[in-house]
Design a protein that fits this description.
The protein is mainly alpha-helical. It contains 12 helices and no strands. Helix 6 crosses helix 9 and helix 9 packs antiparallel against helix 10.
Amino acid sequence: MLRACGRRSVAALTHAELRELALLYRQTASDLSVAREDPTSVPLAQYLNDLLGRAHNLIYSGDKRRAGGIRHFYLRVFPAVFRETLPYTAAALGIFLATGVAGAILTLSNPGFERLLLPATMMDTIERREMWTHSILAVKPLASSAIMTNNLSVALVMFASGIAAGVGTLYMLAFNGLLIGVIGTVCARAGMAVPLWSFVAPHGVLELPAIFIAGGAGLLLGRGLVAPGPLSRREALADCASRAVRLLLGVIPLLVIAGVIEAFVSPSDLPVPAKFLIAAALFVLMSAYLALPAAPVTPDSAP
């Protein structure tokens, strides 16, 4: 691989090749440490030291300006990492949907179950067939800031909880799925399904996928601890954490945009069809963005 890089430069490596180079670099450093402890392995230690020096010079001599910085990360690196780790995002979505269905079933089959999860003020509002979101309109800028902060906090906690072998991430996905299932069922029973989903749709098409991606990042982090595969647990965690952090960084703009929409568009008096059209357009744009082709990246591609 070093010979290939010498001909093409590290900038020509694909994302998968770059990850492989990083793994080989760490493994070689580990082997060098062992060889230095063995007096009979001086030639091997010298060879590994030279090899590591070549790799170090190659990796850390790249032109940062050519890497493209933040723009390159969001236009090329993040979409590629998203597709590469799609099974983890799909698993997060599956957990959310399964517990959402469970929440609906429990609400329908157990009278009063919803009161165990929903605050009394929300229940009173729903029973009056009113949406509890109209107050957002009175303080749009403040609401937007608060919503962004809350969304980013949820994503960060969902990601960080993965360090506990993924258990914390599983819990957050399951609880939020259960909550959405309960709220959706209660609103449908009160004849408020359209007001609810026309409120959720404009911002939810960005916010929910971002949360699922953050949840997938947490599951990926947990996998590095629980199932390291052929790598040592330390190496597997380092590899998974590198990709998971990129996923978390990637969803920040989605959550910021979702926060603005949730404050200014979702609770507005726009016609219901218009809100669903906005949601559909945003979903198409997001899908096209996540499908952007990968480009050769360098170790400095992520901010």
